[in-house]
Amino acid sequence: MNYGRVRDLREDADMTQKQAAEKLFLHLTQYRRYECGESEIPLHIAINIAKLYNVSLDYIAGLTDDKRGLTRSALTENETQLINGFRKLDSIAQGRVLERVEMLKISK
Question: What string of H, E and C letters represents the secondary structure of 59-84?
Fold first, then answer.
């Protein structure tokens, strides 16, 4: 868990520890322990923190620097369609697609 991110999110939201604790229905002392890393944040509390600051659990856990997380894609509809189509191909066809992509990059 990336405890510094929890503090940064709270500060970015212009909240005090007391305000954050109240919104999360936590005692201030317990919230402080979570924020400074003295206590492990239970999953149900981490979920509430993610909801409060509108970020993903992946971000809070330090798995990504994207606040939207790993589960939300930044891909366009076309990119998603290409990936899904690529996955349906056998390995030979996938190799051909990759070769064509390389050729297109060279001819650019």
Answer: HHHCCCCCCCCCCCCCCCHHHHHHHH
Domains of the chain plus CATH, in order, are 3-61 (1.10.260.40), 77-107 (no CATH)
pLDDT tens-digit readout, 67-99: 877 655 667 888 888 988 999 999 999 999 999
Q: Evaluate if pTM is beyond 0.70.
A: no
CB count, 10 Å around CB of 67?
17
Q: How far apart are CA 108 and CA 102, in angstroms?
A: 10
Q: How far is CA 75 from CA 16, 84, 90, in A?
A: 35, 12, 23
The answer to whether residues 62 and 5 touch, using CB atoms and an 8 Å cutoff, is yes
Q: Residue 12 corresponds to which amino acid?
A: D
- Helices and strands (H, E) in the chain, number of each type: 7, 0
Which CA distances in Å does 27 have to 10, 33, 70, 105?
A: 16, 10, 31, 57
CA atoms within 13 A of residue 31's CA, in its CB half-sphere: 19
